[in-house]
Amino acid sequence: MESLHQSNQEYTAETTLDLNTPDADMLAKEKHQRLFLRGRSWLCVGVALMGISFGVNFLLFHSDVSFATTMYIMTSLGMVCMVKGIADILGF
Question: Is the pTM of this model over 0.70?
Fold first, then answer.
């Protein structure tokens, strides 16, 4: 039986794309390292915002000033920064 498709190209291991080369591994490690450092920075910013929010809420608790807006905005921003940081660290 003869094949329906006649191909004149011969594929060898050298002509196919090999993703397990040392260069590809090094690039992937560098990308992961950059993402990890950026994620750690976002996580630190989120923790700092949450800490500042706690401090502001602690100081304004016994005053007659409404601190609900400050509490919700700073806490929400802190949580968003923390989620962004965790997503970068885990590689999403």
Answer: no
Between CA 51 and CA 49 the distance in angstroms is 5
58: containing domain: 45-92
Residue 61 region, left (φ>0) first, then alpha (ψ -120 to 50), else beta? alpha
Alpha carbon 12 to its chain's center? 38
> For 21-65, how does the pLDDT look when each residue is reduced to its tens digit (9 = 90+)?
778 888 888 988 999 999 999 999 999 999 999 998 888 888 888
Residue 19 resides in a domain:
no
8 A C-beta contact, residue 46 and residue 80: yes
